[in-house]
Amino acid sequence: KSANPQWREQFDFHYFSDRKDILDIEVWRKDYKKHEELLGTCHVDITALPTKQTNCLELPLEKHPGSLLLLIAVAPCTGVSISDLCVCPLGDPNERQQISQRYCMKNSFRDIKDIGFLQVKVLKAVDLMAADFSGKSDPFCVLELGNDMLQTHTVYKNLNPEWNKVFTFPIKDIHDVLEVTVFDEDGDKPPDFLGKVAIPLLSV
């Protein structure tokens, strides 16, 4: 029941500098009957923003009254990576030793915000549901930890896809839950849900 809502939420997105990324934002209204209505959209060209500073943007909503106030900072990512299985970031024994030293007991309070990191190897899926009329699916995998999200490539026409990718996340809250979701790519339409698993970090 507000025409001037304040959310004060922060979201982290990862993109590579060789891509031309547009941030699409939608504002929705929801009532008690779960009815949803689109109140407006706006778009931000990420590549046009100055880097290493916080940009304050007031964006008018397209074809609707009102505007959206955002703070957007474009900065180099630290601790987040995607790599192939054959070049796993922790495959080097020297690097593993450096990591062990970095997070040993005597260094626990050197950087309070540096809790640690999570490395996930996404190998394959088996016996997925067929989402297409051909009896196949075009699966890809999305990993979410807190507000960090990374995803694999799509393996087309396959119910037993192999991705063999390694994902590394910085940990901001030890109570976070890693959510791994498999979707079927469906062209310009929203992807179809094929399955999901949730893994609390404290269970690892």
TrEMBL record:
<keyword id="KW-0812">Transmembrane</keyword>
<dbReference type="InterPro" id="IPR035892">
    <property type="entry name" value="C2_domain_sf"/>
</dbReference>
<feature type="domain" description="C2">
    <location>
        <begin position="93"/>
        <end position="204"/>
    </location>
</feature>
<keyword id="KW-0106">Calcium</keyword>
<keyword id="KW-0677">Repeat</keyword>
<dbReference type="GO" id="GO:0005509">
    <property type="term" value="F:calcium ion binding"/>
</dbReference>
<dbReference type="GO" id="GO:0046928">
    <property type="term" value="P:regulation of neurotransmitter secretion"/>
</dbReference>
<keyword id="KW-0472">Membrane</keyword>
<keyword id="KW-1133">Transmembrane helix</keyword>
<dbReference type="InterPro" id="IPR000008">
    <property type="entry name" value="C2_dom"/>
</dbReference>
<feature type="domain" description="C2">
    <location>
        <begin position="1"/>
        <end position="59"/>
    </location>
</feature>
<dbReference type="GO" id="GO:0030672">
    <property type="term" value="C:synaptic vesicle membrane"/>
</dbReference>
<comment type="similarity">
    <text>Belongs to the MCTP family.</text>
</comment>
<dbReference type="Pfam" id="PF00168">
    <property type="entry name" value="C2"/>
</dbReference>
<protein>
    <submittedName>
        <fullName>MCTP2 protein</fullName>
    </submittedName>
</protein>
<keyword id="KW-0479">Metal-binding</keyword>
